[in-house]
Amino acid sequence: MVPVFPGAFLTLILGTFYWLSAVTRVGGGDWGQFQTFGYMGGIAHPPGYPLIIGTTYVATRVVRFAEPAHVANIVGATFAVAAGVALFYAGWLLTRSRVAALVATTVFATGYSIWSEESQVGLVSVQTLLVFLLIAALAAYGDRPAGPRLLAIAFLTGLSLTNHGLSMFMLPATAIYVASRRFPGIARPGTLLRAVTAVALGLTPWLHVVRGLVVPVPIDRPENLTRLGILDLRHQVFDRSLAKESQDSHSDQLLEASRQKALAEWPSFAHDLLREYGWVWIALSLVGWLVLARQRPRLAAWIAWIGLATLWFSLITPPLLDSDRYSSVIYALLVLCLAVVIGWAIGAVGQLVGTFTPDRLRIATLAVSLILLASAGLRIHQQLTGPARFNVVRLRENAEEQAEIGLGIVRHMEPGGVYFTNWTSSWYTRYARHVLGVDRGLSIETVDYGSMGFERVSEVLASGRRLYLQRSTPQYEESFNLVKRAGVFYEVLPKT
Known about the structure:
Number of helices: 22
Strand content: under 5%
Structural class: mainly alpha
Mean pLDDT: 81
Helix content: 55-70%
Largest sheet: 4 strands, parallel
Distance between the termini: 53 Å
C-alpha cells in the first residue's frame, strides 16, 4: 500500500522546517527579481519563469497580512516541501522501502545549498520537484505502461518547460524512454492527441508571459511597464546576449572556451558536491546507480543522461551566471540513487538471513533500519548545528540589512533622481519602489559588468536629473572614472 500516513507526517515536518527557514525580507539577484515581479506580475529574465512568477503572483494576492517578499519565500518553501514529499514517494516507488525513502529525503532536504536556496523563492525547489515527479512517473510507466501513466509523463514534461532551460535535456531522454516501453494502442491518433493535450496543459503557465503582448507588464529592462512585441517576447524567453555571442563567435572558439571553463570549474564543483553530501553518501549514491542499472536499465540511462548533460552545462556556463544552482539537479539524481542502494541493502540483509527463523529475520531488518535512521538523525544534527544552518542564518540577516539599506537609499534620493547600480543590488531598491510604494519618481539603471550602463549619462545631464552611483566592487572603477571625467554631479551611495 502507498504509505499515506508517513507522507502526511513528512509534509508536516518539512513544512515546519522550510517555512521557519524562509527569509522574511527581499533578497538580491534572482531572489529579489522573483519576489518583486511575483508581486507585480512581471516577466523575469530569460526564460521568464512563468510557473514561479505566476504562483507567487496569486499567493501575494491571497495572503495580504505579510510582506510580499515573505509570502514569495513561503511559496518557495512550499515548493521545497512538495519536492521533499515527491522524493519520498519516488524513493518508495523505486525501493518499496519507507526507511530508504525517508533517509534519502533527510539527506537531500538538509543539504547545504539546497537548504539555503530553498529559504527564498527560486528555481531550485521547483526544478527538483519537477525532476522527482517525472522520475516517479517514468518508474510507474516502466512498471506497467498504460495510457493514464503516459498522460502523467506528458503533463509533467510540459510543466517542466515552464521553469528553466535545463528541462530541455529531459525531452529526448523521456521520448526514448517512452518509445522503448510501448503499450497496445500507444500509436493510435486518439492516444497521441491526448498526450499532446496533456503537454499543452502543462505549458499553460506560459500564458502569464504571453499576456505581455496584450497589456503592459514589468520586465527586467527597462524598469517601467512595457507592452511587448513578438521579437521582444522572444528576447524575454531566450537570452539575447548569449544568442548574439554564439552568432558572433566561431564554434571552435566557443568549444575551446567551454573546455577551459569546464577544467577550471571542476575543483569548485567537487568542493560543492562534498559540502552537500560528503564522501560516504556520494559513494553510496554511485553504487545505487549501478544497482538501478541492473533493476531498471532504462531509468538508469535516463538519470545518467540528465546528470551528465546538466553537469556539462553547469561547467561551461559563462562565469557571470550562477552555475551552482544547476548542480541541484545532480544532487537530486544522486539522492534518488542513494534511496535505491539503501533499499537494496535492506533487502540484501533479508536474503542473507533468509535461512534463519522469521523472528531473526525481523530482528536483522529492524537493526539495519535503526542504523540507517540513526545515520539520518546524525545528518540532521550535523546540518542544524553546522555550516548549513549558519549559512541560512547569514542569508536572513543579510536580507534584513540590505532591504533596509535599499529602502533608505530610495528615501534619501531626490525625487526624479537616477540611481546607477548593479543588477543584483537593484532589486532592493526596485522592491522598495514598486512593492512598498516608496516611488518619488525615481529611475533605477543597472550596470552590467562594465561601463555600458552609463550610456545614458548624457541623457541624464540633459534632463537635469540628479545622478546617484553605488559604492561597489573594483570592476566598476572604470565606470566611476568616466562619470567623474564627464563632470556629472553625482553622489556615491552605500553598497547594497
